[in-house]
């Protein structure tokens, strides 16, 4: 039963990433027996989670997922609505893409994006999940966690080394998180992508707890170490503005996954 559920989720993830695909492409990507794949696909078709295009002989996700997306978005609506104009202002100031992120199940989740108009720019999709120890937003979120929660993150996900710069030891990660708590911002110094640098800062609720984070991200030659202090001040300022505006909201209206 558990294996079937995992295979079903693998199929949905594959369709999310690859769009419209044939049965043979699905089989190559999922690598489960043909009979099992066929049975799961038939169930997804019956329940309207997947659509079959008879002309192209391909499968794709149904519009039913829009309902899920709208429902999830509604959970973060107050925060996203408050943050969006501030993200836009930040992007206009620094000419780099800005992001809004939270944590869910000990992973970073992007819930807001304001893209730069530069041809070469960093980007991510709303809803995109990633590990936290190698991103600007993720490290800020980790810095607001207890030691117990940091240990749980490491036990669940490990400290995968994405680039030669990625922090891959608990000792060094704790040192980095302490530094973030002192300075008010985190740097992804080519740790997730060797060509991209990122700066993040925490958004705090009325109790002073970090509940989300803002970041900017761009090519390493534009988000340079020489500009770090200048850019960090702008990111911190944006995070502080959002923090001030959400403090007037009831705690229950700032909900997360």
Walkthrough of the structure:
The protein is an alpha+beta fold and 257 residues long. The chain folds into 2 domains: 2-62, Winged helix-like DNA-binding domain superfamily/Winged helix DNA-binding domain (Arc Repressor Mutant, subunit A, Orthogonal Bundle), CATH 1.10.10.10; 70-253, 2-Layer Sandwich (Beta-Lactamase), CATH 3.30.450. It is built from 9 helices and 8 strands. It has a 6-stranded antiparallel β-sheet with strand order 5-4-3-8-7-6. A two-stranded antiparallel ribbon has the order 1-2. Helix 1 (2-18) crosses helix 3 (34-46), helix 5 (77-94) packs antiparallel against helix 9 (228-246) and helix 6 (136-143) crosses helix 8 (170-183).
Give the overall form.
Answer: globular
The rounded distance between the terminal residues' Cα atoms is: 25 Å
CATH architecture of the largest domain: 2-Layer Sandwich
Kindly report the spatial arrangement of strands forming the biggest sheet.
5-4-3-8-7-6
Largest pleated sheet: 6 strands, antiparallel
The name of the CATH topology of the largest domain is: Beta-Lactamase
Estimate nothing, just give the exact number of structural domains.
2
* Structural class computed from helices and strand pairing: alpha+beta
Tell me the series of helices and strands, N- to C-terminal.
Answer: HHHEEHHEEEHHHEEEH
What is the CATH H-level superfamily of the largest domain?
Answer: GAF domain
Query: Level of helix content?
Result: 40-55%
What's the total number of strands?
8
CATH structural class of the largest domain:
Alpha Beta
- Strand % is 15-25%
The average pLDDT score comes to 89
